[in-house]
Amino acid sequence: MTATEVIVAGVPVLLIIFTPLLPFANEPSLILGIPTMIVWMAALVVAIVVILQLIDRRITRREEANVGIAGVDVAGGTVAGEISADGRTVAGSEDEA
Predict the structure, then answer these.
(1) Rounded to a whole number, what is the distance in angstroms from the first to the last CA of the chain?
(2) Residue 32 in contact with residue 43, Cβ under 8 Å?
(3) Phi, psi of 92, rounded to the nearest 5 degrees
(4) Hey, where are the domains in the chain?
(5) Which helix (H) or strand (E) holds 3?
(6) pTM
(7) Which of 4, 17, 57, 89 qualifies as a cystine partner to 93, CB 3.0-4.6 A?
(8) Cα separation of 52 and 39, whole Å?
(9) What is the pLDDT of residues 3-43, one digit of tens each?
(10) Cα(88)–Cα(77) distance, rounded to whole angstroms?
(11) Is the pLDDT of residue 97 over 50?
């Protein structure tokens, strides 16, 4: 994860931690019959789930893009049936016989 992704994912978590200090948390108000603080916390939980899903998709897309470049995967190895960096074919190719 990049620093930006960590910061974006951390904002709702910090808002949950500091919710009791927010002014609306100490007021006796309701939204659709539910206390405002409960609605706020539920919205933050949903936001955390959405943010983490988007970050996971970005990381997965980044890893898949790295695998497609010259047959080298993220860990630095080669993918079977692809051409290695020195131009030789690796295990799983048709020219191996």
Answers:
(1) 42
(2) no
(3) 100, -5
(4) 3-96
(5) helix 3-17
(6) 0.60
(7) 89
(8) 20
(9) 888 888 889 889 889 988 888 887 888 989 999 889 999 99
(10) 14
(11) no
Q: Which position has the token pair 């048709």?
A: 94
Query: Is residue 15 a contact partner of residue 44, using CB atoms and an 8 Å limit?
Result: yes
Q: DSSP string spanning 13-75?
A: HHHHHTGGGSGGGGS--EETTEEHHHHHHHHHHHHHHHHHHHHHHHHHHHHHHHHTSTTB-TT
- Read off the tokens for 26: 């100490």
Count the neighbouring beta carbons within 10 Å of the beta carbon of residue 61.
Answer: 10
CB 48 within 8 A of CB 36: no
The widest CA-to-CA distance across the chain, in whole angstroms, is 78
From CA 66, how far away is CA 75, in angstroms rounded?
10
Tokens of 37: 């603080």
